Every structure is written in structure tokens, then in C-alpha cells.
Amino acid sequence: MHSFRAIPFAVLSFLTTVYGQTFTDCNPLNSTCPPNQALGVANYTIDFTQNTMSDKVWNVTARPINYGDDGAEFTIAEKGQSPTVQSNFFLFFGQVEIIMKPASGQGIVSSMVLQSQDLDEVDWEFIGGNNSYVETNFFSKGNQTDYGNAIWYPIDAPQDSFHNYTLDWSPEKLDWIVNGNIIRTLTYKDAANGLKFPQTPCDVRLGIWAGGDPSQPQGTIDWAGGKTDYDKAPFTMAVKSVRVSDASRGTQYVYGDNTGSYQSIKVLNDTKPLHLDGNNSPSSSQTMSQKWSGLPQTTKYIIIGVVCGVVGLAVIIFGFCCFRQRRAGKHEKLLEDAKYEKMQGEVMAHRMDMNRMRSEHKMMGASSVEHFSPMSPMMGNAGAQYPFPSQASPMIPGRSPNPNGYSNGYAYGGGRGYQKY
Length: 421
Ligand SMILES: *[C@@H]1O[C@H](CO)[C@@H](O)[C@H](O)[C@H]1NC(C)=O
Ligand SMILES: *[C@@H]1O[C@H](CO)[C@@H](O)[C@H](O)[C@H]1NC(C)=O
Ligand SMILES: *[C@@H]1O[C@H](CO)[C@@H](O)[C@H](O)[C@H]1NC(C)=O
Ligand SMILES: *[C@@H]1O[C@H](CO)[C@@H](O)[C@H](O)[C@H]1NC(C)=O
Ligand SMILES: *[C@@H]1O[C@H](CO)[C@@H](O)[C@H](O)[C@H]1NC(C)=O
Ligand SMILES: *[C@@H]1O[C@H](CO)[C@@H](O)[C@H](O)[C@H]1NC(C)=O
Ligand SMILES: *[C@@H]1O[C@H](CO)[C@@H](O)[C@H](O)[C@H]1NC(C)=O
What we know:
The protein is of the alpha+beta class. The chain is built from 7 helices and 18 strands. It folds into 2 domains: about 10-295, Sandwich (Jelly Rolls), CATH 2.60.120.200; about 295-365. The chain binds 2-acetamido-2-deoxy-beta-D-glucopyranose (NAG) (7 copies). It comes from Cladophialophora chaetospira. Belongs to the glycosyl hydrolase 16 family. CRH1 subfamily.
């Protein structure tokens, strides 16, 4: 975003209020400022496909940021949006690795920035209309007339897949690394013998903005690759993960004088360290609703469709089972009534022993009542199985509607009685 630093300051201050990445609350070069909160650890990693940003560690300076399968999604859905975050921690040399995919779209700028309180700065920038280059840039002590540091490098389709953009920063040199390949090295000596070398504790900033918004000056629109066409929105920059290693391992960094040199920075180690999130704390996992809101609209429709389909199908199957079972029940009852009557007839016809007949008759009558009366519509099928606790409750969904199950049930209770004949 700094290629347009040549443009008038009024324009710049407008941009900075939009984007917030080129200003400082307190400049240690001419003020006494509060200390910088140090990251202070060798390996802070946050995977945004699993975790969200805790506001102890990240300051969302422009919303919204959503979370989905691609991690943290910075989306411009309409004019006026420019989702941006900055870390509450500072690193004083070290490494910053960002696995990300910039947004496509003419006039859309995706960027990753290291910035210090005295406005040293290191940039990665992507122009949405250009899917084959990344811009690398740096600034020193907020010198806004020093705009000749940008270099563009060809890289392989950054918008199509996640790449690993790493900065390796020491007092001697700064490397810009893409997927393990160093594309640019700035040495301390080459940067005006250190005078222009970024060397003060920096925070980490990630954001997307519309450099091609029609309200922007022509120079900015041209740099951003042309006017933004909001009809093509949403434009999404996705950050999968961030890993930061702070080489200085302090708890706070303090400017010892107004030179802005790295030798002037005091590394304090006697204050409370920052509470980290990500892998350091499970408390910031993506919630279900964050995961849901992070899903693409089409995926949501598919999920809603599938859920409705499954529920609908369950209702149909349940209804069908009720119908089948009630019919099966009626059928059984008719059969058993017929059997009963047939037996009654046989009994009479064969003139069996009257005493024995009387007792058997009572028994069959009892089992008929026991097993058929629960088949009323009010009881559903639950009653039919009630005497057989070893069997699955019919109220458990997905239970097989196999009518044999019921036949066996009746055979167990009722049939045994008949087998005696
Ligand atoms: C000093 O402070 C003023 C006002 O706070 C600011 O405008 C100016 O840019 C600062 N100077 C430097 C060298 O940062
Ligand atoms: C940093 O931490 C992450 C997550 O805990 C781990 O996967 C990775 O290997 C670590 N890297 C280093 C260099 O220790
Ligand atoms: C977040 O950033 C804004 C803008 O730079 C600043 O005013 C605010 O104090 C920051 N919040 C925290 C918690 O650091
Ligand atoms: C992408 O940017 C590079 C460097 O500025 C330029 O040479 C190239 O023509 C651009 N490609 C497109 C498609 O704009
Ligand atoms: C800013 O950079 C320009 C270009 O290198 C240089 O001429 C100028 O002296 C610098 N300004 C300051 C205040 O260092
Ligand atoms: C990203 O690149 C850096 C520098 O080459 C490397 O150390 C790191 O392991 C890479 N990270 C991943 C996740 O591949
Ligand atoms: C600060 O304390 C930590 C933990 O005790 C230690 O690892 C680190 O080296 C110390 N840093 C400095 C600058 O003393």
C-alpha cells in the first residue's frame, strides 16, 4: 500500500484512517512512549482453521473477520469494508511466517505488514488483478518520501493456492522467503549503512482494502490495478496460519532514546508475559456458529437441504412403519382370532376333556388380552414389545420395521400357548 506514498499527504491521511496501517499513536522518535508488549517466545503458532484470534493477542481494527476451512477470511463484500487486524505483541527480530492466499479482484489489495512504533515497516502486498506477482517493500522511520524500495517478484499463482510467506529478520539482514525460496535480501549495510534498515520492534498486521475504490486518487487506483468492481464482490483474502518467533525473548521493548536504532532498544524481562492463544490455549477454538458463518453460502444450502431431506425421509419412514405395524397388528389379530376360533371348533369337534379345555381356554384368552390390547393407536408399538425387555425399544429411531420381529414377539407369548395343542 505504500507505492502511493508519493501522493499528497492529505490523501495519505485519508488512506491511513481507512486502513490504519501507516500511523502510530505515539512516536518514540520525539516522545516518551509506553513500552511495546513483547511476544517473547520462540514459537507462537496459530492455525486459523482450528482457532480464532483472541483479543488479548490480536486487535481487530476493522471488521468483519470470519473463520472457515481456509482459516481467517478477510472479506470485502461491499464498498467501505477493509477488514484488518494487528497483533498486540511486538517482535524484535525473528521470523514471521504467514500461510495465506490473497484475494483476487481488480483494485483489491491484500497485505501483510510488520510495523514499529516509529514507523519502520516491512511489507508483502498483492494486487487482486495480478495473479503472478508479489510486491515486497520496506520503510524506515516513517520516511514517506522514500518510496523507491518496492520490488515485484514473479511467483506461482498466489491466488490459487496457499503459499508460505516468511520474513527472516535479524540486525544483519532481512529475507523475504516464498515457499522456502529467498526472493529478496536486504542487508543492514545496503540500507544506507543501516540508516534505512527496519530495526525497531514491530507488530504484525494483516488486511485487505480497496485501493481501486472510485473515491481513491488516480495514482492509487492505477497502482491497485484499476477501479474496484463491487459487482464482483465478495473478495476474500484467506490466512490459514501465522507463526512468529521473537528473537529477543523479552516481555517488553522500550525505546532508550530518539535515534530509532536497534542498539537503543531495551529488552525488559521483568514484566508479565503476554497470554497467547492458538496452540498455546485451547480456549479460542472456532465455535460452531463461527464455523457455520465461515461456510460458503452454497455449502450452507447443501447442508440445510441434506438435513431437511434426512428429517423428511425419517418422517416418511416413521409414518410408513406405523402404518405397516398397525396393519400387521390387525392382520395378526385376525389370524389369531381365526386360529382361536378354529381351535375352539376343533376342541369342540374332538370332544376333548372338558376340564383341560376350560383351563387352556382361559390361558389363551389371557394371552390375547395381554398382547393385543396394547396395539391401540394411543400406545403405538411400544406396548407390543413391552413384555420383552430384552428387545430394543421401538421408540429408538432407526429400529427395523421387520414384521417378523413382532410375529416372534407374539409367537413367544401367544404361540406357546397354542403349541400345547
Ligand atoms: C513528532 O511528533 C509530531 C506530532 O506528534 C509528528 O507529527 C511528527 O511526525 C513527529 N516527528 C517524527 C520525526 O516522527
Ligand atoms: C511450533 O509450534 C507448532 C505448533 O505447536 C509446531 O507444529 C511446530 O513444529 C513448532 N515449530 C518449531 C520450529 O518449533
Ligand atoms: C486496537 O487498535 C486501535 C487502533 O490502533 C487502538 O486504538 C486500540 O487501543 C487497540 N486496542 C488494543 C486493545 O490494543
Ligand atoms: C503483474 O505485475 C507485474 C509487476 O508489476 C507486471 O509486470 C505484470 O505485467 C502484471 N501482470 C498483470 C496481469 O497485470
Ligand atoms: C527520506 O528519504 C529520502 C529519499 O531517500 C531522503 O532524501 C530524505 O532525506 C529522507 N528523509 C529523512 C527525514 O530522513
Ligand atoms: C515456511 O517457510 C519457512 C522458511 O523457509 C520454513 O522455515 C517453514 O518451515 C515453512 N513453514 C511451513 C509450514 O512449511
Ligand atoms: C527472559 O526470560 C526468559 C525465561 O526466563 C529467558 O528464556 C530469556 O532468555 C530472557 N530474556 C532476556 C533478554 O533476558
